[in-house]
Amino acid sequence: MRTPPANGPDSPGIPPLALRRMLAASRRQFVTAAVLLFTLVAVSIANPAFLSGQNLRDLLVQSAPVVIVGCGMTLVILIGEIDISVGSLLGLLAALMGVLASPQRLGLPIPLVIAGVLVAGAAIGLLNGLLVTRGRVPSIIATLGMLTVLRGVTELVMGGEWITNLPPSLRWFGTGSSLGFPFSLWVAAAVAMAIFALARFAPLGIRILAIGGNPDAAAIARISVPRTKLLVFALVGLLTGVAAVIAVPQQSVIESGIGAGFELVVVTAVVVGGTSIRGGYGGVVGTILAALLLGSIRTTLVFLDLGESAVYWERAIQGAFILVAVLADHLASRPGPDDSLAGARA
Amino acid sequence: MKLASRLALAAAVALAACNLALAQTSPATPPPSKKTVICLLPKKKGLPYFTTCAKGAEEAARELGNVELIYDGPTDGSPEKAASMVDRWTLRGVDVIAVSPNDPQVLGQAMKKAREKGIHVITWDADAAPEAREFMVNQATAKDIGYALVDAMAKDIGGEQPEGEVAIITATLTAANQNEWMRFMNERLAKYPKLSLVATKPSNEDQRLAFQIAQDLMKAHPRLKGIFGISSVAFPGAAEAVKQAGKSGSVLVTGLATPNDMKSYVHDGTVKSVVLWNTIDLGYLTVQTGAALASGKLKPGQTTLDAGRLGTKQIEKDQVLLGDILVFTKDNIDKFDF
Description:
The structure holds two protein chains of two kinds.
Chain A: H1 16-46, H2 53-78, H3 86-101, H4 110-133, H5 139-158, H6 168-175, E1 177-178, E2 181-182, H7 183-201, H8 203-213, H9 215-220, H10 225-247, H11 262-272, H12 284-303, H13 313-332, H14 340-345
Antiparallel strand pairs in A: 1-2
Chain B: H1 2-25, E1 36-41, H2 48-64, E2 67-71, H3 79-92, E3 96-99, H4 104-116, E4 120-124, E5 135-138, H5 142-157, E6 164-170, H6 176-189, E7 195-202, H7 207-220, E8 224-229, H8 234-244, E9 252-256, H9 259-267, E10 271-276, H10 279-295, E11 304-306, E12 312-316, E13 319-321, E14 326-328
Parallel strand pairs in B: 1-2, 1-3, 3-4, 4-5, 5-13, 6-7, 6-8, 8-9, 9-10
Antiparallel strand pairs in B: 10-14, 11-12, 12-13
């Protein structure tokens, strides 16, 4: 659900198509919530252990990185772009974290390590943004290139070897708890609330929606399109750094494959959550619900005890979700006779 | 016009990305020499298991003197990338290619092509179809490994008649090694009628996935007593999950991994036994076998091989056997550094 920027003095009026899309987006958040609820109830009936505190806690912890990066990705997709480099970026930041922190490598103090990871994430996000705004490379191609480049750089940084012996004070960020909840959940909740508030109430959020809805109109309304896009790309990079800080130290080893396929899960969460892949409509709440739904697929498959190859179905089911979501998006926004202008933009 | 130039730029960026990715995996071209060139391909480069194998291989190459060793493999474990490395070495005309195939089907084709070019091809660590290679350097028979794993679990659970539910986390469902081991694990489980195998799950050589699967298994099967992690990636992942769930000692984890990766889990009681062979010796024996094959000292039908510091090793048909399985416990694990 989203408040349309219709009443702002500079924003364009909402055409009927946009209204239909917006309704579709909010409807989809309900559908996602319903599917999630149905899954939880059905699996809990089949195997009551699913509802145990431990399991719900594990599900939330596993979904935390997807929620964190998904919030940033929602903004990127809202503005009409996409960033598919986040999986490799997570891998590179993991390697960087290991090299900075491991006593066998640089062995820097932990606050410096974390600052380094966050700064590097934001900087690479900014670079993505520059490729898109200054370089005028379509974002799907620019970030596809970065997906490959960053994976290559990761392997150079690791030097072909795993990083073990992470200092316990760093492991705490992945395994520690405060006030009875895992630290990673506090971080994910804080990020989700901040991005929700930013998207809904801050001028930046309004600008993002305006650009995603109609970039030409936004430019006429004197919104700086490139600067807003740069900010959003840098933000998703920064959030990938935040995700790395809480997700990577959960394991005892840093390997070069971390983050492979992560970008797909994140984009799927955003789209399944009801944000239009064409930009303009959607929101963070749907993304969070969808991230939890996607995160529960594998656990569900294990709990239903569907045989040894069931783990492989996870990807197939995720893929089916994204197809259904995009199809629903397409059907909801099929252009009518009055919508030729908006249709041409997509 | 604008679109065309954008596309051109995009294509250039994508190409540059591909080049970079290729450039960083290709081995440096060595200077021409009369040395025997032996290429050693691990399933996945960077794993401590294979890195220690490479250490032994280097040691053998140094000892032999006239051997030039190239150690390279895919850092993501992709069989397709591994096959393209074998193709590249075939084009270069190296003397020996030793492969640990992640997928015997995919690698088999490339290995056959290499053999047709007159290159000696052997497998080590994992096997491919017999016609794809001349010898296999086998760390231990599948039977030894399968039995040792089940016996270790039975001993760790303890009692006259060890009792409880156990589960296996394997590598991939197509991994030839693991499937053979599991066949013999099942055979050996018959000896312990009160141990019941409730689940077998793949982990795709991904520690995070192994960790999550172990978490799921413990909750889906609350009476679970033991988890086998039968790859060097699945084992530490499963141990970490048990430790974080606070079930160290009540859910026992055993499996195959290098001792250095498991030391902390052995000392905190999550793991009582680690089953493995000496990986340094495995790499050493592989290079010794390759060199003997290239110099003509090793021919099909032989029953022994003179393997440097390892002494004389048995050959069973086309399998060069490394021999003993090691079981690491908290009493001896600190004596090993690999």
